[in-house]
Design brief:
A middle domain of Talin 1; two-stranded antiparallel ribbon; alpha+beta; 6-stranded antiparallel β-sheet; single chain; Cathepsin B, Chain A; globular
């Protein structure tokens, strides 16, 4: 069985799956719009949560939050299930495929054999779409790959029921209802307000722009507090979370800039174009930070590539983002 599903590559798995599922059901929405309406942009430094025994930094909202919010704001029906029993979870997937329904799944990327070996480590927040089954193989639209993929039932079961931090527990989801008409204006404004409120007003020092400044303070002290070798491991984990897992710091800023550009056209507000350009410049700052961090990890850092210099880049990004979110919040509040 094979559903007529159009695969489209994207920058990030959940926003890509959101956009592709909606497109499959006749809602022509870009990944950037799905990301913005779904309020995907976020930041938190969570040193008390470890992945591979290293502190977690997240650049995105909670797992599943983008899809849930974009569907709710657009009036689209979404059904999601988890399973305790792997066989029951695979049987439920097969029944939906037999009914002609494309199904989103959350998986552990380590168990997906088409991932390059360098990227196959335990990360349980990877989203993909299953659109068919031929024999014992499932047909996969994984949005971060240029072409559709094939995965055996054994490996897909392992991926859907991977163990460890943030285990997917067989999570699968699909769309159930599409409204006749969709007005993007109000969802766009609500998405902007959500992101700005979280980044500016969350009353925790490790979240939002305060969290970026908090991380900067910790990072510049890592070599002294934990030693250079471990500080380099911490930095490598941060860069990996930023640039390789879920698109991260620079990529998300570029995507949000694209969202603001589309929003400017839909809302007929050129101020959003100006802020789009400013957000792109912030993304350049995050990319510069990652570049210096990668040089450290490869043993190629120069004297000017100090941990203190990297901390200053983060503080500069936090300052610029504070100004952008403050102006965005004022724009959407005045348009309510």
């Amino acid at each position: 069985m094979k559903i007529d599903f159009r695969h489209r590559q994207s920058a990030h798995c959940e926003s890509g799956v959101s956009s592709n599922l909606l497109f499959h059901h006749g809602v022509n929405i870009s990944e950037a719009l799905a990301f913005g309406i779904g309020a995907g942009l976020f930041f938190a430094y969570l040193p008390f949560i470890k992945i591979n025994d290293l502190p977690l930094t997240t650049f995105r909202c909670e797992v599943g939050g983008i899809l849930k919010r974009v569907c709710r704001k657009l009036g689209v029906g979404l059904h999601s299930r988890k399973f305790r029993n792997p066989d029951e979870g695979m049987d439920a997937l097969d029944r939906l495929l037999e009914s002609g329904i494309a199904v989103g799944c959350r998986t552990g990327a380590y168990w997906l054999p088409y991932f390059p070996s360098a990227y196959r480590f335990h990360f349980n927040m990877h989203n993909l779409i299953v659109y068919g089954k031929e024999g014992d193989d499932y047909l996969i639209s994984d949005p971060v790959f240029p072409e559709p993929q094939v995965c055996s039932a054994k490996n897909l079961m392992k991926a859907r029921f991977a163990k460890g931090a943030l285990a997917p527990k067989g999570t699968m989801y699909y769309l159930t209802r599409i409204p006749g008409e969709i007005d993007l204006g109000r969802p766009i404004r609500k998405g902007i307000k959500k992101v700005c409120s979280r980044m500016l007003k969350t009353p925790l020092p490790i979240v939002g722009v305060r969290g970026i400044r908090f991380l900067a303070g910790r990072l510049e002290k890592w070599p002294e507090r934990v030693g250079k070798p471990k500080a380099t491991l911490y930095l490598g984990q941060l860069v990996r979370m930023q640039e390789e897992l879920g698109t991260g710091g620079a990529g998300f800023r570029f995507m949000y800039a694209a969202f603001l550009q589309e929003a400017a056209s839909i809302l007929n507000d050129n101020r959003l174009n100006d802020l789009s350009r400013e957000m792109t410049q912030v993304g350049d700052g995050w990319r510069k930070f990652a570049f210096i961090g990668a040089r450290h990890c490869k043993g190629r850092a120069t004297e000017t590539d100090s941990f203190g210099a990297m901390a200053e880049i983060l503080r500069d990004c936090a300052e610029k983002e504070t100004a952008i979110y403050s102006e965005l919040l004022a724009i959407v509040k005045n348009s309510d």
